[in-house]
Amino acid sequence: MHKHHLYFVFFWAFIGSFINSYAQKPTKNPSFEEVIARASASSYLRISPNGKDIAFQVRKADWKKNRFDTEIWLSKNGGTPFQLTNSLKGNSTTPVWSPDGQWIAFVSNRNKRNQAYVINSQGGEAFPVTNEKTGVYSLKWSPDGQKISFLTTQKKSKDIKAQEKKYGKFALEDKVYRQAQLRYVVFNPDKLGEMPMPCPEPKKDEKSDCPKQFESKELVKSKEFTVRGYFWSPDGSKVLFNHQPNPLINSFLKSDISVLDISTKKITSVVKNPSYDGAIDWSPDGKSILYSSDLDNNTSNFYTNSKVFIMDLASKKSRQIGTNVDENINS
Known about the structure:
Blueprint: H1 3-23, H2 32-38, E1 41-47, E2 53-62, E3 67-76, E4 82-83, E5 92-97, E6 103-111, E7 113-120, E8 126-128, E9 137-141, E10 147-153, H3 158-167, E11 180-186, E12 217-220, E13 226-232, E14 238-244, E15 256-261, E16 267-271, E17 277-282, E18 288-293, E19 307-312, E20 317-321
Antiparallel strand pairs: 1-2, 2-3, 3-4, 5-6, 6-7, 7-8, 9-10, 10-11, 11-12, 13-14, 14-15, 15-16, 17-18, 18-19, 19-20
């Protein structure tokens, strides 16, 4: 069975367990608040590397605080799901398993900005591992489990700061934006307790009190493009990523695909068609990539199906797949 089909099977199995738990309670006419509170939304299902455990996020209504609360839940070896995180003043989302299955990384805004946290898959306290001024998103583990990568927005330039100081915080439509860059932190479980919880934001003209081992390092940064998505190669030596000139909505039409060599830091363009190109993933042996493309279609690609290709990186030759499928192929 396809891996994505398994996701849906497990997902609906958990939904059923929630429904059964409520069905066993004495029936009564629920209030409006109870109806909304029970209508929890489960999503972002992630299976552990050994295939036995499942982490996912659940959104529920918090009527006392007048907000929706999203937390990470976990089911171990087919057991009843239980809540793994508890963010009193924020949300915890997008769980990602470490390659060895011992840790789960996730994004939380419990300290105002979205930062990366890790928690042991057996339970316990969550530890922050980033302290980015502009927040983080799109977490991924390197294949060896020694790095946690993420996307973050570039800091405000001196020109933007000067403009805000003079005119206030407003932006010229499609003129003022900041690019997304790819960074990472080294993950050392023995050092987790050395980082304050949460790591305090430094005051003006002060340096951060966070230990240096938690400072992030650059993987892909450029003023010429914004990174939209990325994938570690199976051996961890390269990163496949999508990029476009800027983060504006219509710029996706100019999205291209490149590969970063970690050791040399060299970026090589691999797919550059006139219209949208988007990486989907690596082949298991790391010799090929799967990607979708609209080729040179800049007019009807908003409603027509994208084409899917496999490229051999050594020869740079691509072959289209799924040509007999009369539906849009999604990753």
